[in-house]
Amino acid sequence: MFDNGISRRTVLKGSLAAGALGLAGTPAFADPQWKKFAGTKLEVNLIKSPRGDVLEKYAKEFTDLTGIEVASEQIPEQQQRQKAVIELTSGKPSFDVVHLSYHVQKRQFEKAGWLADLTPFMKNPDLTAPDLTEADFSSAGLLYAKDQKGAMRSLPFSVDYWIVYWNKDLFEKKGLSYPTNFEEMVKAAEALTNPSDGTYGFVARGLRNANVPVWASFLLGYGGDFLDANGNLLTDKPEAIEGAKLYQRLLTKAAPPGVAGFNWSECQSAFLQGKVGMWLDGVGFAPPLEDPTRSRIVGKVGYGVMPTGPKAQASATFGDGIGVAAASTKKEAAYLYCQWAVSKLMGARLLQAGGGVPFRNSILNDKEVRAGVKMPAAWVEAVAGSAKVSRLGLPVVIPVTEFRDIIGTALTSTLSGGDPATELKKATEQFKPVLERSERS
Amino acid sequence: MREAAASNAHPSARSPWRPPSYWPFVLPAVVTVSAVIVFPWVFTLWMSLHEWTVGGSSSFVGLANYLRLPGDPRFADAVVHTLYYTVLAVLLPLVLGTVSAVIFHARFPLRGFLRGIFVMPMMATPVAIALVWTMMFHPQLGVLNYLLSLVGIPPQLWVFEPATVIPSLVLVETWQWTPLVMLILLGGLAAIPAEPYESALIDGANRWQMFRHITLPMLAPFLMVAAIIRTIDALKSFDIIYAITQGGPGTASETINLYLYSVAFAYYDIGYGSAIAVVFFALVIGLSVLLLALRQRTKWTEMGGAAL
């Protein structure tokens, strides 16, 4: 979808120089033996997303490079997660390569041992290009990809930082500037709100489950966390409650009515109309905002790093990775595919189309790559700024979905008048046995 | 008839050999029913007695999953939501379906064409309908609030507010399934003889009296059929709710079906999910028995009426 706009020329101009190092094989020494597994046929299971689109679009290049045939399918996120889990449980998955959402599945995949250990492959110069090193991935990426023993179980593919989209026109009209801390953010949001002409200062997800990252963004700013070092829940501690209070205040006082049912798409359409001052959400939702056929605010959008909280500045971070099924019989070939997927060339394409952000610093900090990005410079700045304050936006536990549902319900209840402290206490009590059960089994 | 003929033929010694019984003919049906109905049910019962998660191990826990149910506020809420939703989603289409059946039973120009248009919602895919309605429900951008504003009613929050979400969902369900009720009742109306109306006219009954004392009692069996079909449909309703609200805001529109889906396929807690399914099954059976009992009563009235 988003990547279709990229022309061959842009790619050449922007990233060939960088990509050539990784792929085209200019340095003759220590180059992986790409052709070693020629003739192998790989099955690839991808999440339907701009990331999956980019991989499918250029799959032929991978085949040209390696002689490995790729059959890939893209499935909508929720269904893909279910399918992957069911197939991996069966012990005979139909795919060799699997695309996973770290923030939901990391712990589950790790505990079940579904993914092959990629550490030996990464150390093998016959299999790995010299520029692919652990150190090149951002810390959040490594945190996601490594298991408790420090083995790489997947390659970090695309990261999602939460940023604030803001409407420069509305801010200007009120003589406001982009907030630097939570207090200013609330003030700006409330100053911009004027229900009589349908203008609201702030919008973010109110829908249960989807809304947890919004609260997490606040909680992290108050210095809170989800679990302590021993795995005890911290979701009813003062920081968490402060986060929920801020959530309640912004979404009831400064957000459009009905926000309790909003997921990102409703937030996005509200923001696209030019009647909303700020929208807090993932960085990947930017392309439609700059698309004149869909947006009334092209060129008027500011992209800001999450304002600083009383204790910390933190950008809630999520991400997906790509790994090799432990049950696959073609692990090396599958690893080559994963490596290609996170290569500089492919990462640059992803970033330039605005469809995702690579975990690799060498791509993000490359001037040439940045120059080819189609999004406004402020977007890239926000991405780079968020990378510096990146924190995991969800707890690394198995029942993430239940966590999101239960905490999310509590948050939604605060929007219809529930007391944040009571609601979070109740939700924490409700989630505790679920967490205990999951760790016990 | 055939069995009777066969047993009659038996004593006569015309055929020298007979198969001992007819059970081989029943076998395909038995196998199919066991495989697709009995086995899944027994297996669900079996799973409901285990702590069983996808990707984890399973262990026998007896009735522990069932004992979790009473203490699970989400389950209790889901039962209430399911009943609330079902009652509304049965009553509204029945009332509106009766009204529209009476209207479309009358003769007027273009009746066939208008009937055709009226049943069109039934033919659309529920998920597609749900997506369109979601847009129409949008509090700021939706057409429904625009229409309300034309007649001076302040904007509503529809599915975006816990208090109004279930009635709003029922609105969609009603819009889609009233035509089905109407079709069933039109068939019923066509079957009512003209004589009672003629004698009622002679006795000086007005239209309301004719409807109340002739049409409605004679339609009762058909109304019951429609009610049973609607109840089953409303209880198992999933697609519209899932596509519009996913059970939200919060859990305000989470029916048993949606909760069951989350537990089994999002939390991968197969054991507990199975226990919910078993309880849900019991609820459906209970309601069906109730409706069938009511149906017996409507039949009784009909026969009583005929005996008079």
TrEMBL record, chain A:
Pfam families associated with the record: SBP_bac_1
Gene3D superfamilies in alphabetical order: Periplasmic binding protein-like II
Bias-annotated ranges (Basic and acidic residues): 422-441
Species of the source: Chelatococcus asaccharovorans
Signal peptide stretch: 1-30
Record-given protein name: Carbohydrate ABC transporter substrate-binding protein (CUT1 family)
UniProt key word Transport: yes
SUPFAM superfamilies given in the database record: Periplasmic binding protein-like II (SSF53850)
Localization per Swiss-Prot or TrEMBL: Periplasm
Alphabetical list of PANTHER family matching this protein: ABC TRANSPORTER PERIPLASMIC-BINDING PROTEIN YCJN-RELATED, ARABINOSE-BINDING PROTEIN-RELATED
Renumbered residue ranges of the record's region Disordered: 418-441
TrEMBL record, chain B:
InterPro entries reported for this sequence: MetI-like, MetI-like_sf, Sugar_ABC_transporter
GO CC terms: plasma membrane
Coiled coil: none
Zinc-finger listed as a keyword: no
Pfam family, one: BPD_transp_1
Annotated SUPFAM superfamilies: MetI-like
Presence of the UniProt keyword Lyase in the record: no
Gene3D superfamilies: MetI-like
GO BP annotation list: transmembrane transport
Transmembrane spans: 21-43, 83-104, 116-136, 177-194, 214-232, 270-294
UniProt topology in membrane: Multi-pass membrane protein
Keywords from the named record: Membrane, Transmembrane, Transmembrane helix, Transport
Cellular compartment(s): Cell membrane
PANTHER family per the UniProt record, alphabetical: GLUCOSE IMPORT SYSTEM PERMEASE PROTEIN GLCT, TREHALOSE TRANSPORT SYSTEM PERMEASE PROTEIN SUGA
Recorded family membership: Belongs to the binding-protein-dependent transport system permease family.
Official protein name in the record: Carbohydrate ABC transporter membrane protein 1 (CUT1 family)
Organism: Chelatococcus asaccharovorans
Phylogenetic lineage: Bacteria, Pseudomonadati, Pseudomonadota, Alphaproteobacteria, Hyphomicrobiales
